[in-house]
Amino acid sequence: MSRIGKKPVELPAGVTASVSGQTIEVKGPKATHSFTATDDVTLTVEENTVVVTPRGKSKRARQQWGMSRTVVQNLVTGVTEGFKKELEIVGVGYRAQAQGKVLKLSLGLSHDVNFEVPEGVTVTAPKPTEIIIEGTDSQLVGQVAANIREWRKPEPYKGKGIKYKDEYIFRKEGKKK
């Protein structure tokens, strides 16, 4: 039994959800998002909650039960509060600068990296060594953060690179004489 799937998703004030077939559409103050569930689960809206129930007792139905409930919860959180990822740049001469829909990164390469920010996400650089990614879609915000981090992953000896703000870099000891 899914412990996550059993719990209904609460709809806060100002958020509405409508189900048509296997698709749920959530409208809130920030955005409107939809999700199409698999045929293994049933989505129902009761008063101000969304309930996800499995169809059958198969392993796949139970897996989809918990996953679908979490996706619906992320939709509700996204349209009310939004999601945020913070990146930190560590290294001498490494810096970031937000210019409209382009993030300009100086990462010790022979050229500057111009990262195109996709639609639905806002990227700001309040400090040259800090990047904040915000949006209403959890998956998109995480993917953009991962794509930016991919340009210069943190290395274990000096810790140089782009890391998540709460990430711990396991440091290695260098060569000894």
Care to describe what's here?
Helix content is 22%, strand content 37%. The protein contains three helices and 13 strands; from the N terminus they run H-E-E-E-E-E-E-H-E-E-E-E-E-E-H-E. The strands form four sheets. A four-stranded antiparallel sheet has the order 11-12-7-13, covered by helices on one side. Strands 1-6-5 form a three-stranded antiparallel sheet. The protein folds into two domains: 78 residues, Alpha-Beta Complex (Outer Surface Protein A, domain 3), CATH 3.90.930; 82 residues, Ribosomal protein L6 (Outer Surface Protein A, domain 3), CATH 3.90.930.12. By secondary structure, it is α+β, with helices and mostly antiparallel strands.
Globular, elongated, flat, extended or rod-shaped: what is the shape?
A: elongated
Query: How is the biggest beta sheet arranged?
Result: 4 strands, antiparallel
For this structure, the CATH topology of the largest domain is: Outer Surface Protein A, domain 3
Q: What ranges have pLDDT less than 50 throughout 5 or more consecutive residues?
A: none
Sheet with the most strands: spatial strand order: 11-12-7-13
Q: Please name the fourth-level CATH homologous superfamily of the largest domain.
A: Ribosomal protein L6
